[in-house]
Amino acid sequence: MRAKINATTFITKLFFSITLVLTVSMAFAQNKTVTGTVRDAKTKNPIPYATVAVVGAPASAGTTTSTNANGEYKLVFPTSYVKIRASYIGYDSKDAFVTNDATQTKEILMDQQDNMLEEVVVKAKKKKYSNKDNPAVALIRKVIENKEKNRLSGQQYAEFDQYEKMSLGLSNLSEKFVNKKIFKNYQFLFETDDSAKTANKYVLPAFIEEKMSKVYYRKDPSKTKQYILGDQRAQFDPRFIDNDGLTAYFNKLYEQVDIYDNNISLVTNQFLSPIANSAPTFYKFYITDTIKTVQPWLVELSFFPRNKADMLFKGQLYVTLDGNYAVQGANMTVADDINLNFVRDLQIQLKFEKDSKSRFYLKTSTLGIDFSLTEKGMGIRGSRTVDYNNYKVGIQQPDSTYDGPSTVIAYNVENKKATKSLFETQRPLALAQNELNIYHNIDTLQKIPSFRSFMDIAALLLSGYKQAGPVEIGPVNTFYSFNPVEGFRLRVGGRTTESLSKRFYAETYAAYGFKDQKWKYFFSGTYAFNNKSVYSFPMHYIRASYKKDTKIPGQKLEFIQEDNFLLSFKRGDNDRYIYETNYGLEYKKEFLNHLAIGAAFNINRQTPAGSLTYQMVDANNESRLFNELNSTEVSVNFRYAPHEEFYQGKIYRTPIFNQYPIFTFNYTAGIKGLAKGEYNYHNFNVGAFKRFYFSQFGFADVTAEGNYIAGKEIPFPFLTIHRANQTYAYQLNSYNLMNFLEFVSDHNASLNVQYYMNGFLLNKIPLIKKLKLREVFSFKGVYGGLRKENNPDDPNYGSKVFTWQHNADGVQSSYTFGSEPYMEASIGLSNIFKILRVDYVKRLNYLDHVDAPAWGIRARVRFDF
């Protein structure tokens, strides 16, 4: 017994002595610095946020670190240690020996864990996959059951610091491309692509933006408030590119990923989360590993889509075994056969950390996407990293903290020096040298004359405007067109830019019709109250204008000019035009919460053109023609679009729709006796738009609108002439088989549904699914009528309003609604050649109207991911 005690005491003393000697040695040992990069052994892609530790050293400062977003690390530790170890979820740990040199570089290549994936696949062939009695499915159901308490919305109050970084560049550039003569002066931009699978590939970094924020969350009433403390990006010349719009578009493509959401929005599409409530219906789950080297223990769940062409992920989830079933990490990508356009590669990495209450919160989110038209050609590679720090829960802030818009600029945007200093001193993730170079390179690039010339030509092709000093000439697609009234029409116009003035903008054009031999003109002057471009958000301006031109009654276009060349091609009888002279005064103001208000005053003179007639027939059947119609109108309008996103072009904003609705209200009053106005009337219009997401079943855009015009004996030009389309292009907000001026009403309600199924059905048909086509369905209906005091058919009032229009054969060609609404529906295929939508449109009623088409084929260019 004594011998045993003595031996134990000896061993204890020996262990203590060795530990003491090592500790003292470490304290006085000379340090060495090891830097390097941790990469995937197969793809050579850097592995961000991997742990790199000194083997055998105590967990003290410098002996353990994490790689940054580019997979880079730095360790400073005593020379007595000779081995470091890299570890990351989903990879086998990898050791590397180091020398005693004071400074050295060590690249670590890590192998992905195959675990039992191949074995699982083999078993699946022998036994059909089933959710029943599947432990992986039972586990994912536990994750789903507990996700509300594990996510941010499970907290009553939360706050954290947030750092975002987005960078983009041209990828997969060949050596031949880089060495072209045209790039002789731009060699400083190109970098060797270390992640390329083949040699002699280059990248061209082109964009970077960083943002630092303080974020506060409150559950009830729900509100997330982001105070932006600093924002900086590589800016292009605003004359060529809308930098704010570019940022908004990139943010939509590279949205933040919340694994706890049922649906995850990426590249303008929605993907079903692997922990969505319905995930077991669409995914296959396998338990592929149990990780006991961390606390709490983790289970690796591998998941795959049941149908490889659906909008679903594949990858691994790491779930805690502490009874909370929280997600500790996730690696996700998409299947190669997915019905997704232009995406060559997509990688998502999520890393969670424990807070003081042992709850896991999102620490780092990295989303990388490589866009390309072809699999092997040049592409655009982008990455968005969001890092969260100082996560705190349960701290209630004053109500004023959450008031106002969701995002607030909380710094002086003019003090660029202070902003730069903020990022240099407080940036939580260090930028790689090539990322720092982007800021300098973009500034240098824009000083090169040949690049400015290139941007000038690119702006002309994309926006239709040609720079000419302080003015822009365009849009070029309106320079030539034709129609039955004017014949060949030539037009030239332009407008001033911010180079001339930031407060005053002028726009003009002149056009000439060779058939009617008439000149048309337009002039406008706009004053911006906020010293910003009148085309940028938030708008605040007053505009005066004069216009003398033609228009088609009932044609209302969006995002396109009426005299666009492509709209010159029309079907059927389409020669009813109006010569319109308009004097206008307009005021508009937008607020940061995306509420917009407006007011306008207009004086109109209308003259019928082509086969259009303004005619009254009295009780004695005697007709009287009117050559001019005058109106004076005052109007107010409101538009509320919460959380609206858009890309601002040269003329129009292109909406980037999300799940939030858009509401509109317009009121117009016609005033008789003021500035030769001939009629009194009141026009009320309300509308709502909403995009509905149905997860794997696609999404639907729904528009509802109502209109009422109060007044009597009002001629049809001042009533509602319903939107018609006689072109061969499918127009979203017009009735594609309705003729111009076919339907007129003074009260109406309409519904427009566009349902995009995103290939959910076609993806399941053999061979057809390889075409990656997508189904699209639509329904449009409108119903209303004319009160007797505005109806040409009424025996008491018919002689006091304009008669219905007739065609060349004397057959009536305009009407109001009967006992049923006008309806049309379509079924179509989109994603043809990735850009084309073709619809078979069927008109469901009123087929007895003159020249009413029963069906038609319409096409629309639709660029979508």
From TrEMBL:
Transmembrane segments: none annotated. The keyword Signal applies. It comes from the Bacteria. Pfam families: CarbopepD_reg_2, DUF5686. Keywords: Signal. Residues 1-29 form the signal peptide. The keyword Signal applies. This is Carboxypeptidase-like protein. It comes from Sphingobacterium siyangense.
